[in-house]
Amino acid sequence: MSFFGFDTSRHNPTAAGFSQAHNPFAGLSNNDNEGDALEFEETYDGLGDQLDETDDAFNDDTFGGGDSSAPAPVGKDFDFFGQTAKVANVIEEEHVLFSRQQPAPRATQPVAQAPPQPSAATSSYNYAPQPSYKPARSGYEKYKEEPVGELQVDAALWGVAPKKHAAPAAPAQPAPATSAPPGRKMMSLEEIEAQMRAQAQKKPAQAAAPSPAPPPQVQQQQMHYDQGYHLQQPVQPVQPMQPQVLPQVLPQVLPQVLPQISHAQVKEPSYHPGHGHPVTILQRPQSKHTPPAQPAVQPALQPVVQQRPQPAAAPIQPTQILQNPNRLSGDAAKLGIPSHPTPPMMQPAQPAHPTHRSQGSFSRQPHMITHPSQLAQLSDEEKAAYLEQEAKRAKRNHKIFLMSRDNGLMTPQDKNFITRIQLQQLVSATGNPNEHGTDESLSEDFYYQVLTQIQGGQRQHPSQPLNNFAQTYLFQTGSRQGGMRRHNRGPENHMQRMEQQVQRAVEAAKNKPKNKQLVIEGSLGKISFSNAKTPKPLLNIKRTESTGEVNRPGSAHRVTQPVNGTDKKSALRSIEKVYTILMNMEDHDRTMPPPPANESDAEAVQNFIAWSNEAQLLNTKLWEALRIHDQTHHGNVHPFISFLSYGKGKKAMQRIFRHTTQEQRTTVLTLIVVNLDNLDVVRGAQVTNGDTRLDAAMRENVELFSVAVMSTLFNFMNELELDLVAGVLGIVCTRNVDVIARSRIGASMLTMILSRAEIIKHSQGGSEQSWRSWEITYTQFFNLLEPTLPHIFPGTVNTGEDIYVWQLLAAIGIGASPDQQQRLVLAVKDRVMDTVALAKTLPPDMAAQRLQNVNLFMRSIGLDVELLQ
Amino acid sequence: MLFFSFFKTLIDHEVTVELKNDIQIRGTLKSVDQYLNIKLDDISVVEELKYPHLSAVKNVFIRGSVVRYVHLPANAVDIPLLEDATRREASNNAGKAK
């Protein structure tokens, strides 16, 4: 049996211990084994039987009513249970957290003592120690004791002053209640809520009211906490002094709970050292924070802080280490924890202002009101001013609180990490800033780089927009502090490390194997990577060798259809080949080493020779690709001429001439002239007297030929010697001069040849011999051309597209003998007269234009249109 | 990277971006990234009466994936160079594929 007749057998051994998770049904399940879950007899404590309800004998004693004396405010002394319940909640909470985190045997000890207290205390009251009086189970106890804290996120974790801790602080005050619970042990939910509400409202007033000296039991518990948590803190001797109650309860219970919480949530970055909290709690602006409460709080604060200047550093450091597992504690100390939002109270100089945030507000405060009596002495105005200031302060603190909510969410390391990722992205998106202008970046960003170079000066540097940014970050900062690398281990160093890391990251990215997919073991899918340069492919089509070109339905019969002797596709491909070689040659030109300054520099000479050889090789490749020397089979067009029938073939001419030798160019010119009447732009663009309308494609073709090919040939022709020019003209004579002259391109070509000879004549170039051969060739040419002359004009007089013909006629006329000039005039006389007649009907400026064209020819043979009018 | 490279040269030129929902926005190209997201400034919608809700918008950021066409200023494009750039891109890609 037991002491005082306790029914120890009713102790439920299966009930959850403090070190176990809370299970409200643990007890019930046990009951189920016994049969009935809840019996009225069990829940009824039988007190009702003892009540003497016959009269109201002690009503006044109980309720304080009855007599005429002023109704004294009902104190909260009777509310033992409410207080206990709250404390119990806190205790429960703590223990759940604690036991989960740190199942140290000593830690559980003080807690284990807590539950017997109420029952032990029960005996001190004169309730009959009958088993039946003790409400064995209500079925609600467990719910009542449910650790509420688990459901609420403790804001303290994020370094925010917890509002909710203010509440537990208050219940601790009337601590005696703990040891003296009322007989009634059950509370309905409504009652509990009402209790809590009342609690919240009365708390300030309560804080002001003198609270009874704490019974030894509370102190005892306190000390247990101290020991249990191993805080190196001298246990305060119990001092029954009034103000001491708060210091004891606040800084010790709460701060110790807090590190505990942060232990539980190691991953949550929380910068708040434990003892920051009591202060923040106290300065927490509560809406009901009335001045009377202030003095009570104020003295409490200072003793607390002064009490513990020494141990301050110790509890901080471990928490920090836990928050940032990466950071060495020594490192932290060295760095001086620069970015710490609330510096620990290491500075003994300001023990009264432990945190940054409280400094501003508190430093003013004590000068004004340090004691409630002072407030009472103030006049109404002063009081109002004080209240106003207080409200302002509260508002400000609240604002700061709101803003600082996320303080320290990221450690400097976190921030650096993020910056590093961003820089890495930047570098991979824009390429290594060092690489710009090199071949690698040129191949990636060719168009932009070259165009900006061509346009030149618009932007100062082609890679301005993004690179500069990266460079600023990577290199400027690096060089700026390069000298102090050894000494400064402060945050500056991060930049340097980051810079190195980015460079390493870039290197790694470059050397990364071309593995574009990641298959995580056990997963069903693949993760494919993508970056700026190689975006994630949406379609991944594997082209096997067999399905190359042969099996394509379209190309099958195209192959059988030769266009101009060669199929179009191979012609286009050969053009592309030429372009590829041209680009290679251009790239090669760019890498041309400076010609060796003197013969002694063997290396430079060597380089130059190697380069020249390479250039020569490329030139040979180009020449082969052009297929100039291919033999034309009968009826087929020469490959180079078909090359020129494509737009891009024409466009290539200029570049081909830039990369070929004089001899090669002459060969090209000869080849073109030989095939002049075979050119599509000549053969397909014959003019007739009636209809000059060419289709749009041919017009475009002609235009392109004259721009791309003719201008190139013209430039080249202007450097030719007379005998070569005569040779070219001789070749023309072997061709169908009629066809050539009746096309715009052909006529222009003739003009080009004839005018070059004329220019040579003017500059007294050419030998006697070559002039003689020129004369012969010219006469032959003129004889060939003469019958065509009346028909070389495109369209009728009205179309006005005949300027190139007048140019040709002028070129012919200027080199012609008087006899030839006569024949020339006769041949084109009609056209001249028609044009002059037309000019009279046209508006003056257009007429002048036409006449000027005609005059081009007339002047060349020593006449003028003026004579005809 | 060809298109990115190309559009970079059009920065500060006026372009018309036609979206896949048929809205055409004309504005000054301010920025483009490798996803061909486009930032336009001083925009005007081509058919303003049809899309009044855009009449107050001064600048836009267009996600590259919603662009159907970009109408280019022809005189800002160097066609031969672009052709060469295309060839290079093609040969680069062919080199990578092998």
TrEMBL record, chain A:
Gene Ontology terms: biological process: deadenylation-dependent decapping of nuclear-transcribed mRNA; P-body assembly
Residue ranges of domain mRNA decay factor PAT1 in the record: 1-866
Keywords: Cytoplasm, Nucleus, RNA-binding
Compartments in which it is found: Cytoplasm, P-body; Nucleus
Region described as Disordered: 15-35, 98-137, 195-223, 339-366, 546-570
Pfam families recorded: PAT1 (PF09770)
GO molecular function, one term: RNA binding
Record has Cell membrane as a keyword: no
Protein name per its UniProtKB record: Topoisomerase II-associated protein PAT1
Organism (species): Diplogelasinospora grovesii
From TrEMBL, chain B:
Functional note: Component of LSm protein complexes, which are involved in RNA processing and may function in a chaperone-like manner.
Keywords, in A-Z order: mRNA processing, mRNA splicing, Nucleus, Ribonucleoprotein, RNA-binding, Spliceosome
Coiled coil: none
Record has RNA-binding as a keyword: yes
Localisation per UniProt entry: Nucleus
Superkingdom assignment: Eukaryota
Organism: Diplogelasinospora grovesii
Molecular functions (GO terms): RNA binding
Family the UniProt entry places it in: Belongs to the snRNP Sm proteins family.
Any one GO BP annotation for this protein: mRNA splicing, via spliceosome
GO cellular component: catalytic step 2 spliceosome; Lsm1-7-Pat1 complex; P-body; precatalytic spliceosome; U4/U6 x U5 tri-snRNP complex; U6 snRNP
Main location, first listed in the record: nucleus
Domain Sm: 2-76
One Pfam family linked to the record: LSM
Designated name of the protein: LSM complex subunit LSm2
